[in-house]
Design a protein that fits this description.
Helix content: over 70%
Order of helices and strands: HHHHHHHHH
Strand content: under 5%
Low-confidence stretches: 1-9
Shape: globular
Distance between the termini: 20 Å
Number of helices: 9
Oligomer: single chain
Number of strands: 0
């Protein structure tokens, strides 16, 4: 009986493991990064520079404001990062098998990253919407505020007020942004890991740190234009005549390009890089530590 149980556990665990590890490493990284994310959203909403935003938040709303939306941030990692890192691992393993065990060329890694990003974002979109709404709430005039207590209250209210499909509002740009981000993040991490380890002969720690740094930069550079459009779409409010400023993502991108040129889509790149890159780096570093821990206890 004990042996039967054991073989069952070993059958399920390898399948679930990449998902569990992905979610856990993403959630740990989020706890560290949440305050920076809060500041990034406020800068994108036009409230001044990073130091001004941080100062005003501390003065007017207290330290707790930096962790507003943490429940939504963690819920988003539990859904989005679990799905994207887990599916990336499974997709690349399948591709390596089909490739006769040889390392994958960069374009195949990029394709796996794109697909994993799309899967993750589709699963994580409702939590993402709740997170953006909770972070933007304090910036709205008092009459328009939604006053969500936590992520689950936000989701419950959105379904009650706007219907189930409203949970996927802005899912188009969210999915596209996730595909761009994950293509940059996952493919560059695998590629640079191989380069540092095999070509430069780096040790394990320096390989993980080096590859995760490069991965963070590419994740940010590939995804910021999409993130900018996504934030604009998710926060838009109808004007006095009930007209929305943009009819959709493409319209928003076109109007932005017309008004400010391509660089407008890179508004706040240094802050975005500071926000995305460390999260990506910490996710990889935590993932590496979790895998080492599992190996040491024989999982």
């Amino acid at each position: 009986m004990g042996d039967e149980k054991k073989s069952k556990a070993t059958g399920v665990w390898p399948t679930v493991k990449p998902f569990v590890n992905g979610g856990a490493s993403g959630m740990l990284a989020t706890c560290v990064i949440q305050p920076i994310d809060m500041i990034k959203v406020r800068i994108q909403l036009g409230q001044g520079s990073a130091s001004q935003v941080a100062k005003n938040m501390l003065k007017e709303e207290g330290f707790g404001a930096f962790y507003k939306g943490l429940s939504a941030g963690l819920l988003r990692q539990a859904t989005y990062t679990t799905a994207r890192l887990g599916s990336f691992k499974i997709l690349t393993n399948k591709a390596i098998e089909a490739n006769g065990g040889k390392p994958l060329p960069l374009y195949q890694k990029a394709l796996c990253g794109l697909t994993a990003g799309a899967i993750g974002a589709s699963v994580g979109s409702p939590a993402d919407l709740a997170l953006i709404r909770m972070q933007a709430d304090a910036t709205l005039p008092a009459a328009q505020r939604r006053h969500y207590k936590n992520a689950f209250h936000a989701l419950y209210r959105i379904v009650g007020d706007e219907g189930v499909l409203a949970l996927w509002k802005g899912a188009g740009p969210t999915v596209v942004r996730a595909m761009a981000l994950n293509m940059g993040m996952l493919a560059s991490y695998d590629q640079s890991s191989e380069f540092f380890r095999d070509s430069l002969g780096f040790g394990e720690t320096s390989t993980v740190v080096g590859a995760s740094t490069i991965s963070g930069f590419f994740a940010a550079a590939c995804s910021l234009p999409f993130d900018y459009v996504k934030t604009q779409i998710q926060k838009m409010q109808p004007d006095a005549e009930g007209k929305l400023p943009y009819s959709g993502s493409l319209d928003c991108a076109m109007k932005t390009l017309k008004a400010g040129g391509p660089l407008k889509l890179y508004t706040g790149f240094p802050v975005y890089c500071v926000r995305i890159a460390p999260h990506v780096m910490m996710t990889w570093i935590f993932l590496n530590q979790i895998q080492k821990l599992e190996k040491s206890v024989g999982l």
